[in-house]
Each structure stands twice: as C-alpha cells, then as structure tokens.
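Narrative of activities, Objective 1.

The group set out to show that a structural description can be obtained from nothing but a protein's sequence at a throughput compatible with the screening campaign. Below is one input-output pair from the validation batch, recorded exactly as produced.
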Amino acid sequence: MVKFTVVSGNASTDLAKRIARRLKSPYIKTEKKVFPDGESKITINQIPKKSVVVVVQSTYPPVDSNLLELLSIVSKIQKFSSKVYAVIPYMGYARQDREFLGGEIVTIGVVGKLLKSAGVKKVLTVDIHSKLALKELKISSENISAMNVLVKHFEKLKMKDPLVVSPDMGGQERAEKFANLLKTDFIALKKHRDRKTGKVNILSDKVDVKNRDLILVDDMISTGGSIVKATQFLKKQKCKRVFVACTHALLVNDAAKKIKKAGVSQIVSTNTIPGESGKVDVSRVIADALK
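Output recorded for this entry:
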C-alpha cells in the first residue's frame, strides 16, 4: 500500500487538509512570509518521512506568486522523496495553450518545464481548460473531473424544468455531459470573443427557455464577461432563475457582483479556489485519483 504525505501551499491549505484526511496521511503545513519588496520566503515546518509526497497548491491570482511557491516547495521536498506529485487543482496559464496571434508564447509549456525541473514526477489537476494544455505540459499528468460532484449539488436544489446551457459552442460537450448526469437536456449559445479586446457578443438569435430554470455551465469564470452576456440574453427570452455552475471561480474585478447584477440567482463552484461560491468539495475525487 502506497504511503502518502500531504504538503500544502498557502493557496490551498483547507483543501490539502481535506485530502490528507481522505488519504489518512500525515499533513505538513508550509509558512509564507512576504517581504516589503514583494519577495516571498517559504518554510516547511517538518521533514516528510519516506513516502510519496503530494504537494497541493492551486495557481490562481496572484498566479506567478502561487506558482513560484509551488516550485519552491517541490524543489525542497524532492531532496527527501524520490516521488513528488503536484496536485494543482486550478492550473493557471492553461488558457495559453497555443499561439493564437503571431509571436505569442505557449506559456503552459513553460510551466511544464519549470515543474519538471523542480522535481515533479506527476501532475494532477481538476478540469483543466483544455486537453491541449495538458499535452503541452509534457510531464506525466492526470486531469480529474469535478462534474459528478457539481451535478450532485444541483440534484438537491428544487429546480423547475431545469435546462443546462453552455455560454459558447466550445463548452457544448461539457454541457451535454452535465445534462445527461442531471437527466435533462441542454443547449449551447453561439458566442464571439475579440482576441485583441476580449469583448464578448452573443450571436444566437432566439432560444426556447421560457419558464425554465437554467444552469449555465463552464469550466472556469474569470471576469465573468461571457456569463453576464449569456444571462442578459437568456433573461430576455423569459427564463426563470439562472444558476451558474463552474469548477474554478476566479471571479476577478468584481465579477461576482456583475454576474449577480445581470440576474444570476447563485454561483456554485468547487473549492479548487477558496471563496464564497466554493460550496462543492473536490477532496474525495482527488484522493481517489491518488489512491
């Protein structure tokens, strides 16, 4: 039987503790001190005994700081363990998985090189933005789905004739899977995003959502621009309540406030990123994948 030790970065302390409990493994906390010039000093409180060491650290904003903390912890831990796994529940830079415009750097590939150089043997992540991003890491990796636990949350809510909606065609497969698990149907909206300005427009004309509760499903919400536009469009189609389900709720620049103002009743996300909306715990699916 594999023995694990779980070490947490400061971005994922609560989730790391939950994973350690699920694995019945020792838990080691790290401490972080930030100096006036912005540099961080990371301290590991105890040395792990011989085991597979699982370092848990999401790389949400401040992305670079949380990433550097992860790399620093791994570089220290690999001196004591030949097997260091990085559990990165939210993988920053996963959207930079290809050269969209000439001269752009595929940064997720750079992240993969850094993880490998630091001493990571395997990466586990939850609902990474794209399969291409996982491939670009060029390191042994596994992507875990949080969809089942998200659906279970919505099964407990009293919803009227629920309909699953993807805010764009790219998320159609995700919405279909979510709808199948929830035993309902789905639709996908047509969307256009300007690659230079980031401005979003809904291209769909009309959809039949009258008097139905809707669940807008996405892998992540950053500024919430797509969700706001989709909600405004759907509200004009006389739907009832609009819920949002996502794995990663970044919710930067007052996104939660803007989404609620657009007419969303509730934002439901997982605890890959700590926050008010993080009602769904993914520690079990991560622990099961590690086992």
